[in-house]
Amino acid sequence: MIIHVANPIYDSVFKYIMEDERIAKTMLSALLKKEVVHVTVRPHEYSNTTRDTLSMFRIDFAATVREREGNEKKDRIVLIELQKTWLNTETLRFRQYLGAQYSNKNNIREAEDKGFAYPMVAVYLLGHRVGNIKEPIVYVNHDVFDYNGNVVEDGNMEPFVESLTHNSIIVQIPLLHGNVNNRLEKVLSVFDQTLVDGDTQQVLKIDEDKFADDNDMLYVLHKLTAAAANSEMRQDMNVEDEYYKAIEDRDTAIMQRDKMLKERDCKMAQMDERLSQQSERLSQQSEQLSQQSEQLSQQSEQLRNMAKALFVNGLSVEQISNMTGIDIDIIAKFIG
Q1: In which element (H, E) is residue 172 found?
Q2: Which residues contact 321 (CB under 8 A, 6 or more apart)?
Q3: Residue 12: partners with Cβ closer than 8 Å, 6 or more residues away
């Protein structure tokens, strides 16, 4: 059966579903590929109350993760720093937020006299592509190596190391095209923007039957359906649409202005090139005229010397003119 659900790429919708512990556990378990038995939203999770040049939704979790060590299961707390954005984002903004989390004293382990912090995983849900990476989801995990490049066993589990490094998970939402090959892709399929219904991005059209065997995903769809029917939620999405349209209009104006400036700069550069070429040609012509003037001066000097020599040898001005073809008045000037 086809159902219509609210699009979780909207900040308001995403916040609404992720505040539900069951959905948060479903999402984080799939991302971490580990069993999350308990999750709590950290204080100051919704830091997008003031808008600037882009949307940067941030929400922090403390997740209790159950891991197997040998034949035993052990629970450990992991901090999840989740950041979601629709637009191309400066990495500096991500780094600044992570830096704030590293310096947050609330992230220090309880009863830890050495000041070791909880291990942290940064999750990025991006509404844009990252370079040429073609995989929709990538994991950036740091290992510990010795001098020879051998992995140091349990190095990553050392509290000192965990306090100073973190792993990352990057999700490229535009690459979620309905391909479901694993649990995570199934969970993230509710973000597939190819399922947008109609002219607005606010609603997705999803085949509920594809999730008939998954109670957790049916619960997520139920929550998203409720969000789609909630008038306040739709109003919040309208506000986001207005905000992003304002950004798009601004960016379009900036792009058009930049295009005009680029075209103007290109025309000015071409004009400068033409002026430079004209100046070079004029310089060459001036040099040629100077050379011709010098040649004429030399020829005039030669004629003067020749006329003087002929006059000294007894020829008259008329005879010299007939012999050389030079005007009589000029010869008169030559011989002074």
Answers
A1: strand 167-172
A2: 327, 328, 331
A3: 233, 236, 237, 240
Q: What CA–CA distance (Å, rounded) separates 206 from 221?
A: 9
Of the two residues 225 and 116, the one the predictor is more confident about is 225
Q: Determine contact, residues 12/176, Cβ cutoff 8 Å.
A: no
Residue type, 209: D
Burial of 24 (0-12, 13-18, 19+ CB in 10 A): buried
Contact indicator for 272, 289 with CB cutoff of 8 Å: no
Q: Give per-residue pLDDT as tens, 52-62.
A: 444 567 888 98
Q: Which residue type is seen at 31?
A: L
Confidence of residue 89 (pLDDT cuts 50, 70, 90): low
Residue 90 has pLDDT above 80, yes or no: no
Q: How far is residue 263's CA from residue 284's CA, in Å, rounded to a whole number?
A: 31
Phi, psi of 87 (to 5 degrees): -105, 160
Dmax of the chain from CA atoms? 133
Distance CA 73, CA 64 (A): 12
Main-chain phi, psi angles of 50, to 5 degrees: -115, 130
- Residue 333 has φ and ψ, to the nearest 5°, of -70, -40
Q: Residue 263: phi, psi to the nearest 5?
A: -65, -40
Q: Quick one: CA dihedral 8, 9, 14, 18, positive or negative?
A: positive
Query: Which parts of the chain fold into alpha helices (H)?
Result: 11-18, 21-32, 91-102, 159-164, 183-188, 215-229, 231-312, 317-324, 328-335
271 HSE (CA, 13 A, CB side): 6
